[in-house]
Amino acid sequence: MPSRKAISVQAQVQLSSSKSFELREALLVYSGGSAHHVSGPNTFVTKHSVRSSESGAPSLGPGAPIGIEDILELIKELRGVVPVEFLPDNVLVRTQESIVWWTPSAIRPMFYAVEKGVELKQLSGKQFPQPPLVFRAQVGSLDVRALEINERPTPKANLFRAPYWNVNDQGSVCLGSTKVPREASVESIAKWEKAFFQSEFTHSNSAKKLTEHPGGFMGLWKSLVGKKTFPVQHLASAGQTLGQFIQS
């Protein structure tokens, strides 16, 4: 067990809160030996209470090995708790920070910044068939990729570039002034999709081609006005699987 030691702590923490904070506990991480010669864990962590001395400097109390309950409580304190939610079939992954879901092909209106040209004015507000899509939402950000097959994808499913303006090469959506939900939850999925499709597509945000259509981006969407099915043969590969997208 480590001995009690006087410690001097100097830190600067910026918190968007008027709450006051007091140093109460400390975690010490111990490592030793060589990872090549030790069969068991090579690191352990102890938790210590923190006391104030007569001089005002904090000191550590006796340590105890940290347990699973301590880790879970620390995560809860730092990051909050994922709410208990029923996960519908369209949800692929739910984590502390994000939610990933897919949406089947559908007919949706699309809106463009009409001041960008006559062609866009002719397209804006029209109904278009959409490819099946994969979305990932986090607080303040949204990513989107396209699917070739109109069914719930597996981690090995190949992803394609979402053929939309405002989406960069990594699939991240430039949200601009778009009003998006404040959370990434099952309940917010429909709101994220609505925010994406009902906002204006204003500019190309990618260095690579968005589609394999011979007429390019404009040729693709001009050909789809009033159509019922999206031609997935014109999707451009994203060069990643769903599993890689989830881990990225």
Write a brief caption for the model.
InterPro entries: Prok-E2_D, PRTRC_protein-B. The protein has 248 residues and is an alpha+beta fold. 17% of the residues lie in helices and 28% in strands.
Model description:
InterPro entries: Prok-E2_D, PRTRC_protein-B. It comes from Edaphobacter modestus. This is PRTRC genetic system protein B. With 248 residues, the chain is an alpha+beta fold. The protein folds into 2 domains: 1-81, no CATH class; 91-247, no CATH class. The protein has 5 helices and 13 strands. It has a 6-stranded antiparallel sheet. The chain has a 3-stranded antiparallel sheet with strand order 1-2-3, with no helix packed on it. A hairpin with a 5-residue loop joins β2 and β3 (58-65). It starts with 24 loop residues before the first strand and ends with a helix.
What are the key terms here?
single chain, 248 residues, alpha+beta, 6-stranded antiparallel β-sheet, 3-stranded antiparallel β-sheet, 5 helices, 17% helix, elongated, PRTRC_protein-B, PRTRC genetic system protein B
N-to-C span: 40 Å
What is the helix fraction of residues, given as a range?
10-25%
Annotation, overall tally of beta strands:
13
Secondary-structure element order, as H and E? EEEHEEEEHEEEEHEHEH
Weakly predicted, low-confidence segments: 1-9
Report strand %.
Answer: 25-35%
Q: What is the molecular shape?
A: elongated
- Return the domain count: 2
Strand order of the largest sheet: 4-5-9-10-11-13
Content-based structural category: alpha+beta
Mean pLDDT: 87
Major pleated sheet: 6 strands, antiparallel
- Taking all Cα atoms into account, the compactness measure Rg is 26 Å
Q: Helical element count?
A: 5
